[in-house]
Design goal:
With about 450 residues, this protein is an alpha/beta fold. Helix content is about 40%, strand content about 15%. It contains 18 helices and 18 strands. Strands 3-2-1-6-9-10-11-12 form an eight-stranded mixed sheet, with helices on both faces. A six-stranded parallel sheet has the order 15-14-13-16-17-18, covered by helices on one side. Helix 15 links the parallel strand 13 and strand 14. The longest helix has about 30 residues. The N terminus is likely disordered.
């Protein structure tokens, strides 16, 4: 055997990831937990922002720090040229100095989070992205699997895969990731959905077999179908939320409790129990991004989807509904009041406020000079960064703090595992504006003040 082949055989193998989102960080951490060495190429500022935003992901954060300290995860700046992905120093690989000379390592896997690639990589060179041309022209092994992830217009990833001059290209949408449980939800996915450029080639992804084996459901098909399924799943979930919110308005008019209706609907096996809770709508990044991607697809195809357009409109309007109920309750006389707000994130268990109802609510309240006492728990740091000089924004450490100073209480997000302090509310007999429908019928009956929910018959 030649010295060259011996050197190649002994070269360390790494999983190469490009991205900085929670998806990329979770992927790096999960692969490290599967005994892989991971080289993560990321924009340092964007990566640190992700880690700061997701402080509430306690298990992920602890493992991330552990694997970094053990150099199972090594972070590098994104190179200017995609073909430089594997040009690393031996010091980074072996923990030893090598006169600073670059040393070529072998990749076991490339995983690119497409929306997070630098703009320089995505410049068009003819009919394809520059990074594809660079990878096609480089000496990087075409036998190493390439995994793509992200949310884009339908057909984007099928086109990218076709342009790559390699057979082992895959697309993995993160339909399984759950905020607050990112690590666990990827380690044991509810649905491992994957597209492959070459049919029946999933065995090439040996490193990911444990994840497929742990998944409750696994479905592998071509990349175009996988993209379509991803979009259909997410837009269906968005539709269910907006459907229930639309019906909640009719429930108010008819004097019916939408929460009881949802319970009955969930008993029908054809419908199921998921995403039937009326409230202020949906937020986060995934569902809004899916709707935007679908709109781009429809525009490019000169098609229209009136249903999803309505879903988007209903969702936007629903985020202001609880404020309108508040305004009507006080007959518009709301200037310069003080209110308490419990919860700020886009969903229970998350610390993110992207597309949450907290933003339109705060801005509407502030426009009337209303002081807002916010119990934001995990989302406080993000709100503080977003509104650093807002004198009408005050944070409270516990929900019942300063209730006696407020003239109303808003509930946006409340954990199902945390008891609503009804007795503390009753001490001041505040009107409650419950945008999450967090209170049960029994709790509502025990209130000394008024209650206004979403579709609760009032």
């Amino acid at each position: 055997m030649s010295a060259h082949l011996t050197s190649q055989a002994m070269a360390p193998k790494v999983c190469v990831i490009v991205g900085h989102s929670i998806d990329a960080v979770t992927t790096a951490t999960v692969l490290a937990s599967l005994a892989q060495t991971v080289h993560l190429y990321a924009d340092e500022e964007a990566l640190q922002e992700t880690l700061a935003t997701y402080k509430f992901e306690y298990q992920l954060q602890a493992l991330w720090q552990l694997y970094q300290s053990e150099q199972q995860i090594v972070v590098y700046p994104v190179p200017a040229d995609a073909s430089e992905l594997l040009t690393l120093t031996s010091a980074a690989v072996n923990g030893a100095e090598d006169n600073g000379k670059p040393n070529q390592t072998q990749a076991a896997l490339y995983w690119l989070f497409y929306p997070e690639l630098p703009a320089s990589w995505r410049q068009q060179l003819g009919t394809q992205d520059l990074w594809i041309s660079q990878l096609n022209e480089s000496a990087l092994s075409t036998q190493v699997p390439l995994v793509l992830s992200g949310i884009e217009a339908l057909g984007t990833f099928a086109t990218l895969a076709a342009q790559c001059q390699r057979a082992w290209v895959y697309y993995v949408p993160f339909v399984f990731l759950q905020d607050g449980h990112s690590y666990a939800s990827m380690l044991s996915p509810t649905l491992w959905l994957m597209g492959e450029k070459t049919a029946d080639s999933s065995h090439k992804l040996a490193l990911l077999q444990p994840l497929m084996a742990q998944a409750k459901q696994t479905f592998i098909t071509d990349i175009a179908t996988t993209e379509f399924a991803r979009s259909a799943i997410m837009n269906m979930l968005a539709t269910r939320v907006s459907f229930m919110n639309e019906w909640s308005r009719l429930a108010d008019h008819q004097g019916v409790d939408i929460t009881e209706v949802a319970t009955i609907m969930g008993l029908d096996e054809r419908i199921g129990k998921s995403y039937l809770k009326a409230g202020w709508g949906f937020g986060g990044q995934t569902l809004p991004a899916e709707i935007t991607a679908l709109q781009q697809t429809l525009g490019d195809a000169s098609k229209e989807n009136r249903l999803m357009h309505a879903v988007d409109q209903i969702n936007d309007d629903q985020k202001e509904l609880i404020f309108r109920k508040f305004w009507q309750y006080f007959d518009g006389k709301i200037e310069c009041k003080t209110v308490s707000i419990w919860g700020a994130s886009y969903k229970e268990g998350s610390g993110r406020t992207s597309s949450s109802a907290i933003h339109p609510l705060l801005n509407l309240l502030w426009s009337y000079g209303i002081t807002t006492q916010v119990y934001a728990s995990e989302a406080e740091a993000e709100l503080a960064r977003l509104y650093p000089e807002q004198p009408l924004l005050q944070f409270i450490a516990q929900p019942a703090v300063n209730l006696q100073q407020a003239q109303a209480l808003f509930i946006l997000v409340w954990s199902a595992y945390q008891q609503v302090p009804v007795s503390a509310i009753n001490e001041v007999a505040l009107p409650i504006f419950d945008a999450q429908n967090a209170l049960s019928k029994l709790q509502i009956a025990a209130l000394s003040g008024d209650y206004v929910g979403i579709g609760r018959g009032k």
